[in-house]
Design brief:
Elements (H helix, E strand, L loop, with lengths): L6 E5 L3 H17 L3 E6 L43 H4 L12 H18 L3 E6 L5 E5 L2 E6 L2 E6 L1 E4 L10 H12 L3 E4 L3 H8 L6 E5 L3 H9 L7 E3 L2 E3 L7 E5 L13 H5 L5 H14 L4 H22 L6 H13 L9 H12 L7 H11 L1 H8 L6 H18 L4 H12 L12 E5 L2 E6 L2 E5 L1 E4 L13 H8 L19 E3 L5 E7 L20 H23 L17 H10 L1
Parallel strand pairs: 1-2, 1-7, 2-3, 7-18, 8-16, 9-12, 9-16
Antiparallel strand pairs: 4-5, 5-6, 10-11, 13-14, 14-15, 17-18
Helix pairs in contact: 1-3, 1-17, 8-9, 8-13, 9-10, 9-12, 9-14, 11-15, 12-14
Length: 580
């Protein structure tokens, strides 16, 4: 496939691809230009992607209440849909937690509205998987098996979480399950898990992970199989597994968010506190890791003390400082209660029954300061070591800031009390591979499971990506990681930085695989807003500059601005550097 128009390609049409296209729709309309966009993604629900598949089970819930979902689309001609809270009539209660499928239906509707009404974007969708990206004198080319598509002036990658190399433990377990009468399944797609679970009645199921995905798994394998929760009890259907054995590296479940809006508002930072935090972040991103974390945590002390005092806690400054000191070095080491006791106290804090702990307050503040965090970190080039330290701090606080609905936490406690969830081996157990499956061992306690569910999302580590496009770009030196364990190096506008430090003009990446260049990538809110705006502005700016450049040059570059000079042309390389 070839074209002679001003054309770009977008690989991946999930929520982030949608957000990027909407931002572009506004930018090109404001600029008075029109662009052809080829979209590449085999997904059946454009705009939603697999994570928010509208057809998945309604038992998979978001970890955000309706009142916190703010996804207002940019104002280009033809947009009428508005924000999610206005669309989801079935989620009218601002304290309710909608399903992933509900949000998915909204995102698909947003895509359809944009595809039909954005006057300056001409979209062409291809249900194909891109295998390789290459560069030639006339632009970027995409290879789809035996077919090539291009040339493109711009290519944007928004694949979300592509296939990743399995860690050693999971690879060993998959091999073992294939040799014995045992089953190993991923937590998602949810419908596939639910179909498999229909033959697990009465069996013991281990769950690798004790995070948000585990709550989805438990709801799927109880309510999804006909059971129900009512008045503090679980009423089994007889089709569900008899026992669930979740486990993680620390055995601690994430704690639920405050139960209702008025209670949650008590954790809001004041404007002055938010400004002080933003100022501290501005300093932190330019200093060494230890100093950076001190600047960040010091800015949280005053608001934490104020909230603790207002909620009746007897915690003092030394308690907050001591909590922070441990969190900087060893996140979670402060929580020494048994898993079930930590869950109980978390539910009571989330319901406002008891005063919150310093950790709970700091976690809620961190959740509410995510926009300031992104605003300070994402547009800047942060030293790799400092970036990694700040990201690890953010990841640690997710046990509070990314907590589940209080309903999910209560259901987990009900299942524990009913002895259907067994936490004896929750804290980093040892394993024996046995003929029945897996024997989990913690001290003198052990339990054997015949089914293992992997509910751990792999980190966005580009070196371990098995996506053919990412692997190819790394092999060619066009993509490199920020640091081991992190994502790709990109500029603020999303353009990739190659292994030689050079900008890959017009080749961009947004999303989870850019972790390290950006932060807080796992929220639906990261799919819209500043990051996509910077990308769209960059596209329009580069197209204008290249068009001006092309019209002035007389050395063979086409007057319509569609052609892109060869990278081997030294004069062109110098001109490109001037145009960045």
């Amino acid at each position: 496939m070839t074209n002679s128009k001003r054309c770009i390609a977008v690989i991946g049409i999930g929520p982030r691809g949608l957000g990027a296209l909407e931002a572009l729709a506004k930018q090109v309309e404001d600029a008075g230009i029109a662009i052809d966009v080829d979209l590449f993604d085999p997904v059946s629900s454009p705009g939603a992607g697999p994570n928010f598949d509208p057809d998945q089970s309604e038992h998979c819930l978001l970890n955000l209440p309706v009142r916190e979902i703010s996804l207002l689309p940019p104002e280009y001609s033809g947009t009428r849909l508005g924000d999610f809270c206005n669309y989801a009539s079935s989620a009218a209660d601002p304290d309710s937690y909608p399903s992933r499928a509900q949000l998915g239906r909204y995102l698909v509707a947003r895509y359809e509205e944009m595809a039909g009404n954005a006057p300056n974007l001409r979209l062409c969708r291809h249900k194909s998987k891109v295998q390789r990206i290459s560069r030639s004198c006339d632009g970027w080319w995409l290879e789809l098996g035996s077919v090539r598509s291009g040339p493109y002036e711009e290519v944007l990658l928004t694949q979300g979480q592509p296939e990743t190399l399995q860690d050693d433990q999971l690879a060993c377990w998959r091999s073992h399950a294939g040799m014995v009468n045992a089953e190993l399944h991923p937590a998602y797609p949810a419908n596939a898990l639910l179909d498999a679970a229909r033959r697990w009645g009465g069996r013991t199921v281990a769950i690798r992970g004790l995070g948000l995905s585990t709550f989805d798994v438990l709801r799927l394998l109880t309510c999804g199989l006909g059971g129900r929760f009512d008045a503090g009890r679980y009423y089994p259907s007889g089709h569900e597994p008899s026992r669930f054995v979740p486990f993680s590296l620390n055995g601690q479940p994430p704690l639920p968010k405050p139960a209702f809006a008025a209670l949650d508002a008590g954790f809001d930072p004041t404007p002055a506190e938010a400004a002080a935090f933003e100022k501290a972040l501005g300093k932190a991103i330019s200093v060494k890791p230890e100093r950076a974390l001190h600047l960040i945590t010091d800015a949280l002390v005053a608001p934490a003390l104020r909230i603790l005092d207002e909620t009746g806690s007897d915690a003092r400054e030394q308690d907050v400082q001591a909590w922070m000191a441990i969190e900087r070095q060893n996140p979670g080491a402060q929580e020494t209660l048994a898993s079930v006791d930590m869950l109980r106290i978390g539910i009571r804090m989330a319901a406002g029954i008891v005063p919150p702990s310093p950790g709970y307050v700091i976690g809620q503040l961190w959740r509410k300061l995510q926009n300031q965090l992104r605003g300070a970190f994402n547009p800047e080039r942060v030293d790799a070591v400092t970036a990694k330290a700040v990201i690890e701090f953010d990841e640690g606080l997710k046990r509070f800031s990314y907590g589940p609905p209080i309903r999910s936490a209560r259901e987990l406690l009900i299942l524990i009390n009913a002895r259907m969830v067994d936490l004896r081996a929750a804290d980093d157990p040892d394993f024996e591979l046995v003929d029945e499956g897996w024997r989990l061992i913690d001290g003198n306690a052990s339990v054997t499971a015949t089914v293992m569910i992997d509910a751990v999302m792999p980190p966005p580590e580009v070196e371990k990506s098995r996506d053919p496009v990412i692997m190819n770009l790394m092999d060619e030196g066009r993509l490199c990681s920020v640091a081991r364990g992190l994502g790709a190096q990109v500029r603020a506008d999303g353009q990739l930085i190659g292994q030689d430090g050079g900008v890959q003009s017009g080749l961009c990446l947004l999303g989870r695989l850019a972790l390290g260049s950006v932060i807080a990538v796992d929220s639906i809110h990261d799919c819209v807003g500043a990051a996509t705006d910077r990308w769209a502005e960059g596209v329009v700016t580069r197209m204008r500059r290249w068009a001006d450049f092309a019209s002035r040059e007389e050395d063979g570059i086409g007057q319509d601005g569609a052609s892109v000079p060869c990278e081997g042309d030294i004069g062109v390389l110098e001109k490109r550097a001037e145009l960045q």
